[in-house]
Design a protein that fits this description.
Blueprint: H1 5-54, H2 58-70
Helix pairs in contact: 1-2
């Protein structure tokens, strides 16, 4: 069986390109997951912040305003 160096080089280049694409997709997926997790975590705190505001906590009010500025709070 004869090995053609051009075919071997092309297969190697394709394998490297596939691995880079996979790695980039993995990194992109992690970034999206972190963003979704952050928004879900902050959203779960909104009820507690609202309750704190009702009980007179100015810090909870500031936190809710920050969420609105970030676009996470209620519109």
């Amino acid at each position: 069986m004869e090995h053609d160096p051009k075919k071997l080089a092309a297969l190697t280049a394709a394998a490297v390109a596939a691995e880079l694409a996979y790695d980039q997709g993995f990194v992109d997926g992690i970034s999206v997951g972190q963003a979704v997790g952050f928004v879900a975590g902050v959203t779960s705190l909104k009820a507690a912040l609202s309750d704190g505001l009702r009980h007179g906590s100015p810090e909870c009010g500031k936190a809710l305003e920050s969420l609105k500025r970030l676009g996470i709070g209620d519109k």
